[in-house]
Amino acid sequence: MRNKDYFKGKKVTVVGLARSGISCARLLAKSGALVGVTDSQDNAAIRAAGSQLKSHGIKVELGRHTIGFLRGRDLVVTSPGVPDKSPPLKWAASFGIPVISEIEAAWLLSPAEVIAVTGSNGKTTVTTLIGMVLKEAGKRAVTCGNIGNPFSGEVERLRAGDFVSLEVSSFQLETISNFKPRIAVILNFSRNHLDRYRSMRQYLAAKARIFMNQDNADFLVINRQEEVLKIIAGRARSRIVYFSPSKEFNANQAAVMAVASILGIGKDKVIRAFRRFKGIEHRLEEAGRVRGVRFINDSKSTTVDATVWALRNIDYPCILIAGGREKGNDYATVRGLVRRKVREAVLIGEARGKIRRAFRGVVPLREAVDLEEAVRIAFSLAVRGESVLFSPMCKSFDMFANYEERGRVFKSAVGLLARGS
Length: 421
Known about the structure:
alpha/beta, Rossmann fold, 3 domains, six-stranded mixed β-sheet, 17 strands
């Protein structure tokens, strides 16, 4: 590891006991830090994780946050799902304790070159493809971050000369301090996360932090078609490389080609990786066919733009299942596409009322109490040759721990239909 003694002897509190919090706490403890973890939730899964951390000498506070758990700390590390108004972060500010994100902690210890990917849509696909291209070129590479394993869970396996293809969110970028990727990629920018940010300007500022520490030895890869991104790129000290879609490559593929060109990886290797790519779980993933009806799992869709992309890339007409926790989306922007491609819609979750108002008069609407019932209703509405598209446009946290669990429940419900038929 790099900077092996950076955390040694430091008293660190990790806020949030999800995957990144667990991995980060373990990494910091192995680096010699005196670690405590605090989480406001208390359930069987979190207690099991807490017990494992305690066995490594890590203090654990569950079901609450107490000010004493923060007092006297040298550093606070926050998980991406922790709201910026969470009590531990407020207390840290009042005590003058620095707060950093999990990716910052991992980057400080990682010896590998980092390629960081952000944007409103397409991050997982591009991050995955970059990792595949690196391996196709014979380089040691890991793909991590908001996809798969947290960055901190990979650090101990990394060596100098390795590459990390890292998916990063605006939430993680809010609390970086020194994080400096060799290559930063901003794919696009659209309305998102307005449940967290006061304005689109604030959301854009969080995304722009990905290049704030770069210098002229680094690269910033930007979508040429996004005027707002070209404007903020004017502040960058790094070398700017533009990409844009073409007849041969879509926008995601063009971004990967741009990264490959920086690294001197030939087009033949990139195309081989594209051919091997089988798609991303929970992103337009075929979940099965029942009596001639195709079920598509797009649980990773948490924005209107993601669902627009899904609707444009499937056969129509379809039955749409949508809804979840509201995040400031403007569902009215998709009315025209829904009118053209959706025959009926089944709505679930906390946002179903807002979506219903946006879609009223556009398409017949049904409601369901949970996802399993929504699958049964959608199947009853569909006819042979049609698709049922589960593309929520919302966060999962009203009913599920994350979009992965939500997608698994959808696939399980489809499996039950198949067995019943």
